[in-house]
């Protein structure tokens, strides 16, 4: 009987879910700024206690690996790696943008594309592009939203659904430059969306090395130097 614990800490949402195989048992989450340090371990302990699950009964830990908030990811990974190491159970990592896409994939037409966007600074986002089977067309990367850059998306000549925390500030330019753009409001990160993808990796034994795994912080978009 596989019990999996899922941790999402890549954004302002601190979220933990407990599942039996790919079925949600319970979820605790709070979107209150970056409160992960105060709440993450409390959520984990309470979820296990309230559902009468001993830590030793867990079969794996699933973690949203980024991109996203540096601090949030660091706290989430520390908790996930600590549990996996102490319990001697597998650690499973998932791309945060793929997780976000899992939240909306059933609500989008089969022939459309899905473009999750996570907010970064100014007109910068983290972006990926998937088809309705969750196959990757553009891998997760930093993206500066400009008239020129969105041509990379226009080349697919399909309806594209945009969503996530980076979508709102990008919406005016996307509307202007893309004829087939659609927008899904209020899609945020949650550990609930890790469950199906995490269990698929669990069944395939697609685990990472607990000692050496790190979040996918990605790199800065620009390096600027001061003018002399």
Report what the structure shows.
The protein is 28% helix and 29% strand. By secondary structure, it is of the alpha/beta class. It folds into two domains: 3-96 and 189-203, 2-Layer Sandwich (Nucleotidyltransferase, domain 5), CATH 3.30.420.40; 104-183, Nucleotidyltransferase, domain 5, CATH 3.30.420.200. A five-stranded mixed sheet has the order 3-2-1-4-5, sandwiched between helices. A hairpin with a 2-residue loop joins strand 2 (13-20) and strand 3. It is elongated. Mean pLDDT is 93; it is low at 221-228.
Supply the key terms:
Nucleotidyltransferase, domain 5; five-stranded mixed sheet; elongated; alpha/beta; single chain; 228 residues; 6 helices
Summarize the biggest pleated sheet.
5 strands, mixed
In terms of per-residue confidence, which ranges show pLDDT below 50 for 5 or more consecutive residues?
A: 221-228
Q: Average the pLDDT over all residues and give the rounded result.
A: 93
**What count of structural domains?**
2
CATH class of the largest domain: Alpha Beta
Give Rg in angstroms: 18 Å
End-to-end CA span = 64 Å
Instruction: Bin the helical content.
Output: 25-40%
Task: Write the CATH architecture name of the largest domain.
Answer: 2-Layer Sandwich
The third-level CATH topology of the largest domain is: Nucleotidyltransferase, domain 5
Strand order of the largest sheet: 3-2-1-4-5
What structural category characterises the helix and strand content?
Answer: alpha/beta
Q: How many strands in all? A: 10
In percent terms, what proportion of residues is strand?
Answer: 25-35%
């Amino acid at each position: 009987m596989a019990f999996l614990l899922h941790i999402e800490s890549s954004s302002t949402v601190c979220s933990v879910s407990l599942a039996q195989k790919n079925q949600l048992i319970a979820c605790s989450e709070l979107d209150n700024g970056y409160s992960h340090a105060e709440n993450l371990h409390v959520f984990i302990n309470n979820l296990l206690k309230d559902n009468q699950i001993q830590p030793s009964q867990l079969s794996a830990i699933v973690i949203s690996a980024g991109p996203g908030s540096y601090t949030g990811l660091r706290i989430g990974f520390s908790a996930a790696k600590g549990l996996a190491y102490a319990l001697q159970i597998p650690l499973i990592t998932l791309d945060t943008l793929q997780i976000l896409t899992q939240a909306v994939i059933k609500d989008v037409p089969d022939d459309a594309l899905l473009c999750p966007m996570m907010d970064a600074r100014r007109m910068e986002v983290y972006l990926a592009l998937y088809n309705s089977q969750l196959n990757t067309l553009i891998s997760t990367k930093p993206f500066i939203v400009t008239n020129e850059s969105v041509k990379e998306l226009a080349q697919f000549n399909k309806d594209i659904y945009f969503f996530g925390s980076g979508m709102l500030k990008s919406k005016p330019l996307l509307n202007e430059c893309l004829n087939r753009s659609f927008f899904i409001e209020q899609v945020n990160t949650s550990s609930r969306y890790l469950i199906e993808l995490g269990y698929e990796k669990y069944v395939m034994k697609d685990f990472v090395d607990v000692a050496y795994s790190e979040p996918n912080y990605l790199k800065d978009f620009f390096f600027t130097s001061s003018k002399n």
